[in-house]
Specification:
The protein is of the alpha+beta class. It is built from twelve helices and five strands.
């Protein structure tokens, strides 16, 4: 009996020993399973803040976007220069309808809620001030003073032979007036040449004299400004050139005008002498 009890006690102790390692293995497995989760958690937690660092750098790029609107200032400057056509304050210019004037200032005015840039042009001899929108200078034909070479060409034109068409005086008067208001210095010189009368020639009619004086005034004022002389000196130079032109008697000149009119295919008066028509128009 005693031997049987001892054998039973020995079996139970063996069973306990075999159970303990199993429990220990299970416990270790659970612990091992728990450890990776603990390690992963910090990694995921630590990985989350990393994207936040680049986000903080994004505001630094914002000033570049804000600086871009300043670039369009260059096109605006080019637009202003284009509108002004290179004209500046205190510069002498030629306004076709009034002749030589001086730009006193460039000012802005608000008209109907819109800003308008204007040239303030003074015509000293006429005692007149004109305001011209800078965007309209090309339309009105405003130009800079003629170059010395062009002035020389206009003076050479004065020495040529007068070309008088045998058309109605009213038509010729319109052509002369159009040339005067064209602003072309050579065309104005042609009017002075064609309407000039020397002492040996018949006197001008009233309308002829008016057109001649208007053309002479426009021509002399521009020559005076270009050559930095007075108008009196410019008129003397113009008259000196006109004196060099070939002038003959009134009858010879009339016959020559007839020949030129026929050669050029101009409209001729068939009703009678052109001089009579001219006197009636005056």
């Amino acid at each position: 009996m005693k031997g049987a009890k001892k054998a039973a006690a020995a079996k139970s102790s063996k069973n306990k020993r075999s159970v303990m390692p199993e429990k220990t293995a299970k416990t270790a497995a659970k612990a091992a399973a728990a450890k990776p989760s603990a390690k992963v958690a910090p990694k995921t937690a630590a990985a989350a803040p990393k994207p936040a660092a680049p986000k903080a750098a994004v505001p630094a790029a914002a000033p570049k976007v804000a600086a871009k609107p300043a670039a369009p200032s260059r096109p605006e400057e080019k637009k202003v220069v284009t509108q002004r056509q290179g004209f500046k304050a205190n510069e002498f210019v030629v306004y076709p309808a009034h002749g030589v004037g001086q730009i006193l200032a460039i000012e802005e005015q608000e008209i109907a809620g819109a800003k308008l840039e204007l040239f303030v042009i003074n015509f000293m001899k006429d005692k007149m001030t004109l305001r011209v929108p800078t965007a309209k200078v090309a339309n009105v034909g405003m130009r800079k003073l003629s170059e010395p070479a062009l002035v020389k060409k206009a003076l050479e034109t004065l020495k040529g032979r007068a070309r008088v068409k045998r058309t109605m005086w009213s038509r010729r008067a319109q052509e002369y007036e159009a040339k005067i208001n064209s602003g072309d210095i050579v065309a104005i010189a042609e009017v002075v040449r064609d309407l000039y009368r020397s002492e040996s020639q018949p006197e001008q009619s009233y309308s002829e004299r008016q057109l001649y004086e208007a053309a002479l005034d426009r021509l002399s004022r521009e020559i005076a400004v270009v050559q930095h002389s007075t108008e009196t000196e410019a008129i003397k130079e113009i008259e000196g050139q006109l004196a060099k032109s070939p002038r003959r008697g009134a009858k010879a000149e009339s016959a020559e005008g007839d020949a030129e009119g026929d050669a050029d295919g101009e409209d001729l008066d068939n009703d009678g002498d052109d001089t009579a028509v001219e006197d009636e128009a005056a």
